[in-house]
Design goal:
Layout lengths: L7 H13 L2 H8 L3 H15 L4 E4 L2 E4 L1 H22 L12 E5 L2 H18 L4 E4 L4 H9 L5 E4 L8 E15 L3 H6 L3 E2 L1 H4 L3 E5 L3 H9 L6 E5 L5 H7 L2 E6 H6 L6 E6 L5 E8 L7 H14 L4 E3 L1
Parallel strand pairs: 3-4, 3-5, 7-11, 8-9, 8-10
Antiparallel strand pairs: 1-2, 5-12, 6-10, 6-11, 6-12, 6-13
């Protein structure tokens, strides 16, 4: 087995099947027939000596070998694609670049609708993918070009370039009919008040847990959920409260059903920014995307952290 023996198209096929977890959907994404994808998988399996994907309900499941291969193959294809199509200059009207962005689920809801519309108008052949990256790997992912931009409040990214999008603050959200709101109507929650509340913590947004820990209120957590987008239904149906960004709470549907209360927290006020690697600061496609984002959202100037 030697790298010279591999067909690059088989790596593209592997990447598509791995991302789709379904041979038929991968075939559509590659503009191939399902038998052609299946034949390609057979060639790749024979070459690597591994089944790569196991059939299951609704699609396929990658083997451990496929999981180990997926990241390097995806990154290599991305780097090769960028080198071929974007070297020297960037013409958005002709580009087929895949822009990869780090966002949380609330970031996707906040930024993607306007961003994808703007990109589709100016770069109709380009694509956008979101890739949530663990915080400890984020700076390296930016440096290596695995992602182009990272969105959010990301104080750990000390060595990146950044541009402020907007300022925000953390608040306490609960349903408008919550007994605390009915009885007190407080606009500023004191520590004593918070000791009477039961909370939701959000695993993908560490600030909610860190704040409750800093206030010695971790024992008041009654529910831990993975994402912010599950909160509206939970808040409406329970007497639980959550610490979350004001900007996101305001965007919840039927927000007149919620009470948004200010409180004094550690690091209550924060900035949401876009971050990118200094290595890619002069990259034409990266510059173009940053300008699109800043035109849509920015309140501040571009600067180094």
């Amino acid at each position: 087995m030697h790298i010279r023996d591999i067909d690059l198209n088989l790596l593209r096929l592997f990447d598509a099947v791995y991302n789709a977890r379904n041979v038929s959907r991968a075939a559509i994404a590659l503009d191939l027939t399902q038998p052609a994808v299946s034949q390609g998988l057979t060639r790749l399996r024979n070459w690597l000596g591994d089944p790569l994907f196991i059939r299951g309900a609704g699609g396929v499941t990658p083997t451990p070998r496929a999981d180990r291969l997926a990241g390097p193959i995806h990154d290599a294809l991305h780097a090769l694609e960028g080198a071929i199509f974007e070297s020297g200059s960037f013409d958005p009207s002709q580009s087929r670049k895949v822009f990869r962005l780090h966002m949380t689920d609330i970031g996707e809801g906040r930024f993607l609708p306007a961003l994808i519309n703007a990109v589709r108008q100016l770069a109709p052949h380009a694509r956008i993918e979101t890739l949530p990256i663990p915080g400890s790997e984020l700076e390296q992912a930016l440096d290596r070009g695995r992602i182009d931009l990272a969105f959010g409040f990301l104080p750990l990214l000390a060595n990146t370039r950044r541009a402020k999008l907007f300022s925000d603050r953390y608040i306490v959200l609960m349903r408008r009919g919550h007994p605390f709101v009915t009885q007190s109507g407080h606009q500023l929650i004191r520590l004593y008040d918070m000791q009477q509340l039961d909370f939701i913590s959000v695993r993908t947004h560490a600030y909610t847990i860190r704040t409750l820990q800093a206030l010695n209120l971790e024992y008041r957590i009654r529910l831990t959920t993975e994402h912010f987008m599950a909160l509206p239904a939970i808040i409406q149906a329970t007497d639980l409260a959550v610490i979350m960004p004001h900007n996101i709470a305001q965007a919840f549907p039927s927000n007149d059903q919620y009470a948004i209360l200010d409180a004094v927290f550690p690091m209550r006020d924060f900035e949401v920014s876009i971050h990118w690697s200094q290595r890619h600061d002069a990259d034409p496609s990266n510059q173009w995307l940053r300008h699109i984002v800043l035109d849509l959202y920015a309140q501040g100037d571009c600067r180094a952290n």
